[in-house]
């Protein structure tokens, strides 16, 4: 794009410190850090020194030197206390991530690299916190929340990189892949935000974050397809160009819908992008329609844009002297034991990384596969909905049950209207017949008197009284004709709704019987049952995988061999590590079995889904008919008051017109009688 609009970023609040029996000056400087890079440096130094301290002095849970550590939980504002120095470390690490997120979000992004680095540092802090500390300390440091934070930070870092790539006019395909990766990170974050457990933990901010992230998903998907369209343009694939630009426009429109309530900066960015994409699409479509005439492929026949992750969680190293400074507790415990403990921790971390890489790869395949099938185990058949009347319809039935004369009143009202309408029409017809008869008699008189007959179609001039009657009759006929159309439409509307109103006023069993329901064969039911069974297996596999992962993390978290390391010779360290790491072999076997089972489960699900296709189509058609029927019945109920009102207005109108027509008829009769008397006098003479 010619310029790069910028979206707002999400940042996290810092936790507030409470009681901790530590040097007051040190504590104060560590918890009241300035909101700048210097503050990040202070937190890193304090975190590193706490790491050195806890490795030498027994200040952990239920250890001899443990003291209360109190911090405020972010979402509830409650003070949470643990007698564990690792809790102090965890909270400092959380604040490090939060401060980096704040600095990244508040940066004006004059230089995208600065914001990108802040967000990667934030992701690194939250990743270290997730992988090295218990998740039970407080809600804001639970596994779900930390995963959410990590994906948000990585997404925002990639977003900064995307802005720079567009400003640098990088190749369209690369920009599309970078943008697609932004979408992938935000989709992961959105899955977490949509999780009911995570939503309950976050509280009121969940809704705001979810709205912004959902909007960004569609927005950056639009940017990705915009640049895929530009690449197609460069390759002179003009049909592909049209479909990519059209898809970009569709996704941008979805983003605009989701952006209601967002700040003006977001609206401006969306308007700017709409101008770019709208112009590209219009131009591409016009060129293809009038010049190139290339077939426009379906979007799902084109290869999906694979994201290019160019950012990562920058690692936290609590023992890096360049960051932490000199170890102020170096003399308290043998450094060899500390170094060995760090090496063992790295072995555990490596084991966890290897296992998690396999799990995440399988999860990605599973998520993509399930997204492509669009199968929800809870609503895969929707058969329960057909066993009862929906609440919206039940409400209408209940309302009509206390008004039993609804249909009767409507029919009577329309009958009265029809009667008045017929009376008016009869009066106007009689007036017209009297005028025509008088005209005919006048012609005969003129012929008898031997006068030259008037030209064909030109009647002799009537008397002034009859001329006035004729004029008024024409006016009433015109009004009647216009009202007649409205009356006809009103009767059509009544006939359309009266049957539905009778149905809604009747027994509920009849209402239920009127709603469509699927007619499934035994084979269809067997197909459904098999599909639901396999979907249950998929969920069972997911749950077991999550449980095993959590067990592995907890085992690693609790695995402290410091005591053994102090009494082990350096030459025996490697052997000790190998022996200690064997404790993880069994759970690794279980995880491998779980991951290996995925291929067979997905194959079975694919076969079941193929058989389900015809049933799915039939159920979708029945559901559409069911929804249409419900909407039609509701519409009939809601049309009742309007029909009654218009019927009354019609009665009032025609009652007034009837009075006028009756008077005009009397006037016409009198005028015709007078004219006839005059003709008789002329004949007698």
UniProtKB/TrEMBL annotation:
Xref: CDD domains: BRO1_HD-PTP_like, V_HD-PTP_like
Compartments, as annotated in UniProt: Cytoplasm; Endosome
UniProt keyword Coiled coil present: yes
Positions of the BRO1 domain: 27-366
Alphabetical list of Pfam families matching this protein: ALIX_LYPXL_bnd, BRO1
Coiled coil region boundaries: 421-451, 531-558
Gene3D superfamilies to which the protein is assigned, alphabetical: alix/aip1 in complex with the ypdl late domain, alix/aip1 like domains
A GO-annotated cellular component: endosome
InterPro entries xrefs: ALIX_V_dom, BRO1_dom, BRO1_sf
One of the GO BP terms on file: endocytic recycling
Keyword rRNA-binding: no
Keywords, ordered alphabetically: Coiled coil, Cytoplasm, Endosome
Domain of life: Eukaryota
Protein name: PTN23 phosphatase
Species the sequence originates in: Pampusana beccarii
């Amino acid at each position: 794009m010619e310029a790069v609009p910028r979206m707002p970023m999400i940042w996290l609040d810092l936790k507030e410190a409470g009681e901790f029996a530590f040097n007051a000056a040190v504590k104060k400087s560590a918890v009241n850090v300035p909101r700048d890079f210097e503050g990040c440096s202070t937190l890193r130094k304090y975190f590193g020194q706490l790491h050195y301290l806890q490795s030498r002095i027994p200040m952990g849970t239920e250890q001899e030197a443990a003291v209360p550590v109190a911090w405020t939980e972010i979402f509830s504002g409650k003070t949470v206390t643990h007698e564990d120095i690792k809790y102090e470390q965890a909270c400092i690490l959380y604040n490090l991530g939060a401060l980096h997120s704040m600095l990244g979000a508040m940066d004006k992004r004059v230089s995208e690299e600065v914001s990108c680095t802040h967000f990667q540092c934030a992701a690194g802090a939250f990743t270290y916190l997730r992988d090295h500390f218990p998740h039970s300390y407080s809600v804001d440091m639970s596994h779900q929340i930390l995963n959410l934070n990590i994906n948000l930070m990585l997404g925002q870092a990639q977003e900064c990189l995307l802005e720079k790539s567009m400003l640098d006019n990088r190749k369209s395909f690369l920009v599309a892949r970078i943008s697609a990766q932004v979408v992938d990170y935000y989709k992961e974050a959105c899955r977490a935000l949509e999780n009911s457990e995570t939503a309950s933990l976050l509280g009121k901010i969940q809704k705001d974050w979810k709205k912004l992230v959902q909007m960004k998903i569609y927005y950056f998907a639009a940017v990705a397809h915009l640049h895929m369209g530009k690449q197609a343009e460069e390759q002179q694939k003009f049909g592909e160009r049209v479909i990519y630009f059209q898809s970009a426009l569709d996704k941008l429109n979805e983003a605009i819908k989701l952006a209601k309530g967002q700040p003006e900066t977001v609206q401006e960015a969306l308007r700017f992008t709409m101008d770019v994409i709208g112009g590209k699409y219009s131009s591409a479509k016009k060129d293809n329609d009038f010049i190139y005439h290339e077939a426009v492929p379906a979007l799902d026949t084109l290869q999906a844009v694979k994201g290019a992750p160019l950012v990562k969680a920058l690692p936290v190293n609590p023992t890096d002297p360049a960051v932490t400074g000199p170890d102020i507790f170096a003399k308290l415990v043998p450094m060899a034991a500390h170094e060995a403990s760090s090496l063992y921790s790295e072995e555990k971390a490596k084991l966890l990384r290897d296992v998690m890489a396999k799990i995440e790869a399988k999860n990605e395949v599973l998520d993509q596969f399930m997204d492509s099938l669009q199968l929800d185990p809870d609503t895969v058949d929707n058969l329960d909905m057909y066993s009862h009347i929906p609440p919206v319809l039940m409400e209408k039935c209940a309302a009509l049950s206390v008004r039993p004369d609804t249909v009767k009143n409507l029919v009577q009202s329309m009958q009265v209207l029809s009667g008045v309408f017929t009376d008016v029409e009869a009066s106007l017809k009689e007036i017209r017949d009297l005028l025509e008869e008088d005209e005919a008699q006048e012609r005969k008189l003129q012929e008898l008197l031997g006068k030259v007959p008037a030209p064909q179609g030109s009647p002799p001039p009537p008397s002034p009284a009859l001329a006035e009657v004729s004029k008024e009759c024409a006016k009433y006929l015109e009004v009647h004709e216009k009202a007649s159309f409205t009356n006809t439409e009103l009767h059509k509307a009544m006939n359309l709704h009266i049957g539905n109103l009778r149905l809604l006023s009747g027994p509920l069993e009849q209402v239920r019987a009127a709603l469509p329901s699927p007619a499934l064969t035994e084979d269809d039911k067997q197909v459904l049952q098999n599909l639901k069974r396999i979907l249950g297996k998929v969920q069972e596999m997911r749950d077991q995988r999550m449980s095993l992962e959590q067990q592995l993390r907890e085992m690693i978290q609790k695995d402290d061999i410091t005591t053994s390391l102090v009494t082990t010779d350096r030459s025996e360290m490697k052997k000790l590590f190998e022996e200690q790491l064997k404790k993880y072999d069994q759970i690794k076997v279980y995880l491998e079995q779980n991951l290996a089972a995925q291929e067979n489960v997905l194959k079975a699900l694919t076969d079941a889904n193929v058989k389900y296709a015809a049933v799915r189509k039939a159920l979708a058609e029945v559901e559409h008919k069911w929804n249409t029927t419900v909407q039609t019945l509701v519409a009939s109920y809601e049309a009742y008051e309007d029909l009654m009102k218009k019927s009354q207005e019609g009665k009032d109108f025609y009652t007034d017109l009837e009075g006028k027509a009756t008077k005009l008829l009397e006037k016409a009769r009198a005028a015709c009688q007078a004219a006839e008397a005059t003709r008789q006098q002329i004949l007698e003479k």
